[in-house]
Structures are given as structure tokens and as C-alpha cells.
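Why does residue order matter? Because the sequence determines the fold. Keep that principle in mind as you read this record.
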Amino acid sequence: MIATNLDADIRAELFAGQWSLMWGMRNRIAHGYLLVDPAIVRQTIDHDMVFIVTSIQQALA
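Structure:
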């Protein structure tokens, strides 16, 4: 399931209000990829993905 298909309240609960930032980064990468700094993407992956994956795993448990 794609997170955009989730109810807004569920997304807010899962991602602690960070959804708009996540969606914004997705849009930046998808539509402005020539202007994206790979170091920022790497930093986001290294620091934020654990939170995202853990939130989803806890919701599924």
C-alpha cells in the first residue's frame, strides 16, 4: 500500500507529523532531481529511515 492512500490521521500517527516533509522530499527528488544534493538524500536515508521503517513495522504488528 502506498502511504498516500492512507487516511490522513493514520499517516499522522505513523509518521509523527513528518508526512509533509517526507512528501516534499519525494516531490523534490521526482520533479527537481537535477537540483537534489545527493548528500542530503544520503543523510536522510541514514538518519530518518530507521524511524520510518520502525513506525510501519509497529503498526503492522
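The radius of gyration is 13 Å.
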